[in-house]
Amino acid sequence: MEQSLSAQEIPVEDIATRDFVLADVVSAKKALLLPKGVDLSWFGSAKKRLVQRLKSEGVTHIRVFAEKTPSVRDLEELIQRVRGPVKQIDRALACQAVRQLGDVYRRIASDGDGVTEGLFEPLLSTGHILAQEILSSQAITLSLYKMRQWDEYTFVHSLNVALLSGFLASRLRPGDNAFVNKITTGSLLHDLGKAMIPLHILNKPAKLTDAEFAVIKTHPIKGFELALQQGISDEEMLTVVRGHHERWNGNGYPDRLRGEAIPLPARIDAVADVFDALTTNRIYKEAESPKNAISIIVGDAGDHFDPGVVRELLLSLGLYPPGVIVELSDGSVGVVVSTFPGDLVRPTVMLLADLEGQENSLHLVDLRESGLYIRRSIKSVDKRTLDQEELAVNGLVEGAHKA
Ligand SMILES: [Fe+2]
User: Fold this and answer.
1) Has residue 342 got a pLDDT over 90?
2) Is the pTM of this model over 0.70?
C-alpha cells in the first residue's frame, strides 16, 4: 500500500490549503486550536497567519489527510481486497483505444473530407471489445482515466464516455447486447467531428465568443457526415454522433429535438459526456467531485437530460461512487469501495486508519448496518494517468493541425 493513502503527520510549515485536519490540534497548554475535521481550504490566503499562530503556540506537527489523494492503483488494490462490485478495464485496452482515437483524429484533421476508406475500422473493433468487457460483468466499469496532456483530452474523454454510456445502456436495456455494443462504439466516435474544428477555438482557455461557439456547434453534424462517409449505416451509432448535444427540453443542437424525439442512444451519451467532462480537470476549471457532478446532473434532469437515464446513473453510482473519500458521522474518514444499487447514500467505506499498512486489519463499514452516515465527501481518488510512453500520442494533434 502506498504511503499516499495514509493519514500523515506533517510539519506545520508544510500544510497545504487543501489538507484536512484528522486530529484535534492543541497548544502546549492544551487549548484547542484546530478541531478535528477542519478543512484547511477555509483559511485560503490566511494560511501564513495560521502557521505562525500554530508555531507560536508550540505546535510543530499536525495530523492531516494530505492533499495527495490515493491513486487509482491504490483503489484497485483495495477493491481487489474487498471484491466490491467495481471493475477496471484492462489498461492495455484503454491505451489502445486512446491511441487509435488519436490516430483517427490526426488523419481527419490533416485530410479533412478526403479521408481514406476504412479509417474507423480499428475503432469499431475496439468498441466491440469494450462492449464485451462491459457486458462480461455486472459491475460498474469505472471511467477512471485522465489525460496526461491537454491535447489528449478528446481521446481519453471519448474512452471514458464510451465506458459509462455502455454501462448505462446495459442497465437500461438488460440483455440487449447489440444495443450496448452500438452505444459503446458510437460513444467512442461521438466527438470525432471536433477534428475539423480549429484548435485555437477548441482549446481556448477562456469563454468562447458567439461566433466561436457557433463553430464548435458544427461538430455533431461534421462527425455524422464523416461517419456516413466511412460507411457507418447503423442508425443507433449515427444518432449518438449527431444527437449527443440535444437537450431534453429542446434547447440543444443541432436539430433542437425534444424529449423522446431524441433517440435514446443520444440521451445516454449526453449524460455520460457531461458526467465525465465535469469530473475532469480542464485548463479553465478544476474537476468536480463525482458527488457534485451527480448533483449537477440530477439538478438538470428533465431540463438538459432524460430523467430516466439520470435515474439509472444515480442508481448505479449512488451519491458516493467508489473512490470518493468521505467523512463519517463519527468523524472518521474513509474511501468508498462499493455501492449498492437502490441505496444511494449508504455505501461500504474502508476506514482511512486501516490504510496505514496493517494488511490484516481491514476495517470495512457497511453503512446500511453501522448506524453511521456520511457527513460529507472530501475529495475523490486521483484518476489514473495513461502514460506517455504507452500512448505515444505526444504532439499528435498539434502536428496534425500544422500539416
Ligand atoms: Fe460533443
Assistant:
1) no
2) yes
How far is ligand 1, taken at its centre, from the CA of residue 93, in Å? Answer: 23
pLDDT, residue 397, reads 29
Provide the CATH number for the domain formed by 3-65 in this structure.
Answer: 3.90.105
Task: Measure 221 CA to ligand 1 centroid, in angstroms.
Answer: 10
Q: Closest Cα to residue 332, out of 65, 15, 74?
A: 65
Give the span between the Cα atoms of 94 and 349, in whole angstroms: 27
How many Å lie between the centroid of ligand 1 and the Cα of residue 289?
Answer: 21
For 283-339, what is each residue's pLDDT tens digit? 566 777 777 788 889 889 999 999 999 988 888 777 777 777 788 888 788 888 777
Q: What is the pLDDT of residue 351?
A: 79
On average, the pLDDT of the chain sits at 79
Give me the residue label for grid cell 505526444. 394
Q: Is 23 exposed, middle or buried (0-12, 13-18, 19+ CB in 10 A)?
A: middle
Report DSSP state, residue 320: S
Which residues, other chains included, contact 118 with Cβ-Cβ below 8 Å and sequence gap of 6+?
A: 230
Distance 220 CA to ligand 1 centre (A): 6
Domain boundaries, the chain: 3-65, 84-319+384-402, 324-380
Could you tell me which CATH class the domain 84-319+384-402 is placed in? mainly alpha
Cα 154 to ligand 1 centre (Å): 9
Angle at Cα 131 formed by Cα 110 and Cα 169, nearest 5°?
Answer: 105
Contact 189, 220 (CB under 8 A): no
